[in-house]
Structure formats: structure tokens, C-alpha cells
Amino acid sequence: MAAPPLALCAPRPAPRVALRPLRLLALLALCLPVWADCPCREPALCLPIRHRPDFEVFVFDVGQKTWKSYDWSQITTVAAFGKYDSELMCYAHSKGARVVLKGDVPLKDIIDPSFRASWIAQKLHLVKTQYMDGINIDIEQEVNCSSPEYDALTALVKETTESFHHEIEGSQVTFDVAWSPKNIDGRCYNYTGIADACDFLFVMSYDEQSQLWSECIAAANAPYNQTLSGYSDYIKMGISPKKLVMGIPWYGYDYPCLNLSEDHVCTIAKVPFRGAPCSDAAGRQVPYKTIMKQINSSVSGSQWNKAQQAPYYNYKDPAGHFHQVWYDNPQSISLKAAYIQNYGLRGIGMWNANCLDYSGDAIAKQQTEEMWEVLKPKL
Ligand SMILES: *[C@@H]1O[C@H](CO)[C@@H](O)[C@H](O)[C@H]1NC(C)=O
Ligand SMILES: *[C@@H]1O[C@H](CO)[C@@H](O)[C@H](O)[C@H]1NC(C)=O
Ligand SMILES: *[C@@H]1O[C@H](CO)[C@@H](O)[C@H](O)[C@H]1NC(C)=O
Ligand SMILES: *[C@@H]1O[C@H](CO)[C@@H](O)[C@H](O)[C@H]1NC(C)=O
Ligand SMILES: *[C@@H]1O[C@H](CO)[C@@H](O)[C@H](O)[C@H]1NC(C)=O
């Protein structure tokens, strides 16, 4: 059964026709549990956001209080992947931004329709009691094309969206997909079915070296051509660009080199992943703030790879071993982000907003501002 719309409970002029006492009591009983424990300074801040922005800026937050330093003039949605923080929810709502829950579930469980229904009910309850605005479904599990999980996943997304839209007006249900629809990391999903079934897809245009089939060498986290070919493939299969939000990385990869050649080719250890002989798992993810602190002491300084349109540098660790670090900066991000306007994508977002330096140090402050600045659509 649908809960009464929260707006019923919002302060409003006295009704012209007096409610009969019993009816009034019933209404209060329904409203009080919702309003009595709203943690925000104004109860209205507990209302879900209904406004639909023209351009999405979809931010992943992984916890703590760095969100206080984000550029809230741009943010439209925060996917709260850290511990629930009611202060973040109140603040986001005061800025008109949505806060959505993380949704993940073992896929073998969701083959059972009744399991799906109870999972959805549980997430919906959590979202309502925490005054959130929707859910971001982040299933990155392997699915074989002819397995029962294939259709069950599409059904999960469809049923989640139906429940959420029905129960919370204006709520948002989104789904995270790999950089390409070509069964990356063994994820054979019904991408068109899933896109139809939710509000939009967040395309994770990063970790694009998760499966290296030929040379085992360090490469960009999100090379320009590879990234754009992924969007073109999603669009070619019939998914509207308005259903796609471009996800960019605010982190890079630090690869220990088995050998670093004079022309900067860094050979990496063979770490297989889902059938591929080598992967980015040979490296370690590093946040942009760490990278920016390290560049000046590196042996190469910042270099630009033209073929991949991405920056990298080489450094020597205390044991004397060479490493190569590939990352994204305002230059590489703005090249990719130009595609958003050219093809009419719905917006942009990043994994994750916590990766920048919010310490307030003068150099860091400027670098951080530049990273937020390139998210803005160019006129
Ligand atoms: C998918 O199929 C492969 C090869 O048949 C198998 O190794 C793998 O375990 C399967 N994965 C899942 C999630 O069922
Ligand atoms: C994908 O899902 C939609 C909606 O459930 C369905 O109509 C379509 O046949 C599915 N496509 C494939 C290739 O399974
Ligand atoms: C390793 O790097 C050195 C120095 O650049 C180079 O001379 C050598 O050919 C490389 N070895 C291999 C196996 O690539
Ligand atoms: C690194 O060097 C560049 C160029 O000299 C300089 O602009 C930048 O401020 C330095 N960064 C740090 C963190 O010191
Ligand atoms: C990237 O794509 C452009 C245009 O299709 C092409 O000319 C270029 O060779 C590609 N670069 C690489 C490194 O694949």
C-alpha cells in the first residue's frame, strides 16, 4: 500500500472544511512518525526532491565530512556510499540535490521473485526512514548471457523503479554500467532493458584496463578513444543519450614496472581477471590528491600520452623500483566531457568526490577547483 505523500504533512493553511476529529487523528498518526524525527533544522528539508535538473552532476561520496567542501552549486545527486549521514542529507536537500542509497545484492538470490520483492521493500523502507531520494544500483557481478540471472537483473531494476516511483514522488533509480556494453568483466547484462527500466545509467568510464588481452603494459585508466567508443556503442544499441551520465575517475593507477623502457613502456605483472591474462589489478588505485603531491618529485614529471590523451609519470620508490602512474586531470577530463554536449548526454559524475584535496592549502585549493570546474557544460 502506498504511504501518504509527505506533502500532506507540510505546514499549510487550515483546511476550510474542518476535518472530523477521527480523520484528523488518523492523519496525524500517519504524519508524526515521519516528522517527529526529521533531523534537519527545518522539517521541510526532509521532503524528497522532486525537481528534475536539465543537467545531472552525479557525485559518489564515500563518507566522512569532505562533502562540506564540494561545489554544491553544481551537484544534483549524491550517491551516499559511505555511512549514512543525516547532516549530508539535510544539506543536500537545502541545495536542491538528491541523496540516494547504494543498492547491491548477490545475483543468485534475485532469481527468486519473492526475494526481489523483499529486497526492494527493505531498501524502500531505508530510503524513506532516512529521507533519501532514491537508489543507485551498483551490481558489478559477472552474469552469463543465458543464465537466469540475466533476466532477473532486468526484472530487479524494473521492479525497483516501479516501487520507488510509486512510493516516493520524484524519486530516482539509477544503475551503474561498465565503460562499454560489450560484456566487460563478464557482465552480460540486458543493457537496453535496464536502461528502459530505470531513470538513467551511470557509465563507469574508468578501470578500462580491467581486462588486458594483448600486451601486459601500464595504460590510461580511461583512454580517450576507448571511452568514447563505449558511449557510441551504448547509443548504437538504441539507448537514448539522455539515459547516459558520463562517469569520470578522480583517481588513477600506480603500476610497479617489471621493466621501464626508455620510451616509457612499463611492463606489468600478469594478474588475470575474469578470463583475461592481465589487468589493472597489477596496479593500485590512487586518489588525485595523492597523485598531485607526488608528481613534482617524480623522475619524469607529468607526461602526456597523445594516443590515449592522458597524463602519466614515472617515479622510483624507496626500494629503487620504477612505477608508472596514469591518471586524469582537467585536460584529459575536459576532452572527454566535450562528448557530453556534442552527443546530448544527460550529465557527468565521478568516482569519487572524496579524492580531491580539500585541505585548503593554496596550491591544492586551485587544483581542486579546476577539477570541479571542468564538470560544467561548456556553452
Ligand atoms: C559463467 O560461465 C563461466 C564459463 O562457463 C563460468 O566459469 C562462470 O563461473 C560462470 N559465472 C557465473 C556467475 O555463473
Ligand atoms: C531486454 O529486456 C526487455 C525488457 O524486459 C525485453 O523486452 C528484451 O527482450 C530483453 N532483451 C534481450 C536481448 O534479452
Ligand atoms: C627493459 O628496459 C631497458 C631499459 O630501457 C631496455 O633496454 C630493455 O630492452 C627492456 N627489456 C625488455 C625485456 O623490454
Ligand atoms: C609542482 O610544480 C609546478 C610547476 O613548477 C608548480 O606549479 C606546482 O605548484 C607544484 N606542485 C606542488 C604540489 O608543489
Ligand atoms: C582514435 O580515434 C581517431 C578517430 O577515429 C583515430 O584517428 C585515431 O587513430 C585513434 N587513436 C588511437 C590511439 O586509437
From TrEMBL:
UniProt-listed GO biological process terms: chitin catabolic process; oligosaccharide catabolic process
An example Gene Ontology molecular-function term: chitin binding
InterPro entries linked to this entry: Chitinase_II/V-like_cat, Chitinase_insertion_sf, DIAC_cat, GH, GH18_Domain-Containing, Glyco_hydro18_cat, Glyco_hydro_18_chit_AS
Keywords: Glycoprotein, Glycosidase, Hydrolase, Lysosome, Signal
Signal peptide (UniProt feature, chain positions): 1-36
GH18 domain mapped to chain residues: 1-379
GO cellular component, one term: lysosome
Keyword Acyltransferase: no
Entry annotated with the keyword Oxidoreductase: no
Main location: other
Subcellular location: Lysosome
Function: Involved in the degradation of asparagine-linked glycoproteins. Hydrolyze of N-acetyl-beta-D-glucosamine (1-4)N-acetylglucosamine chitobiose core from the reducing end of the bond, it requires prior cleavage by glycosylasparaginase.
Family: Belongs to the glycosyl hydrolase 18 family.
Protein name: Di-N-acetylchitobiase
Organism: Chinchilla lanigera (Long-tailed chinchilla)
